[in-house]
Amino acid sequence: IIFSWDNARVIHESYLRQFQVNNCSEIDNCFGCSGVSNCGWCDGKCVDRVDIASHQLVCQIELALESSQCRDCDMYSECTNCLESSPHCQWLSNRCTRRSSEVSSGIVGNTTLCPKPCDSFDTCSSCTKASRCAWCDSHQVCFEFKAYHVVFANGQCTSWHKSQATCRSCESLLNCASCVKEFQCGWSYEPGNAGSGVCVHGDFNGALFYHTNHTASSGSGMVVANST
Questions:
Q1: C-beta of residue 19 within 8 angstroms of C-beta of residue 25
Q2: Are 194 and 151 in contact (CB under 8 A)?
């Protein structure tokens, strides 16, 4: 069989019609939705572009009319956001990935099974139990370590812990001498009785967090060393 293309002509784009669908809402992902000429991805749903253009729909969070504007799964760093972003995303090994046919025991496909967010931990010990989290000493908060440059864009967190072994508790120090040797620990005491007090986290401006059993009065003293 011999094919001859001598008389073939290139079809001009004016004769072509862009792909359209009758019901945009049947498309469940941004990439498929934005590839259809009459649809657009708006706040997690595929909708008709006419509704967007006429302002019947106002996209508050996300609007994608082209595939390049879609957020891929790996753009989400938190489990709940990952699973809510698209039915095609899954949480695996502490990161958001595209769903595949591979079966793994570590896959999280339901938000109720997501690990607790790092910022829900309120102590260094509980925070560092989660391998993805780190404890910021200077701000006394738990954060997702890989998101450090987002959470502390100006480098505000100057000291952090990734392991329980390095966690310190100022409150565990029972005398002034041992307390003030530790970084950002200070001895809080009542006026006239410096020997009776508690070791708290703080700096030269004062205590940041007082012991639950100790209420500092306006006249209480504060001895701080090694705050920088």
A1: no
A2: no
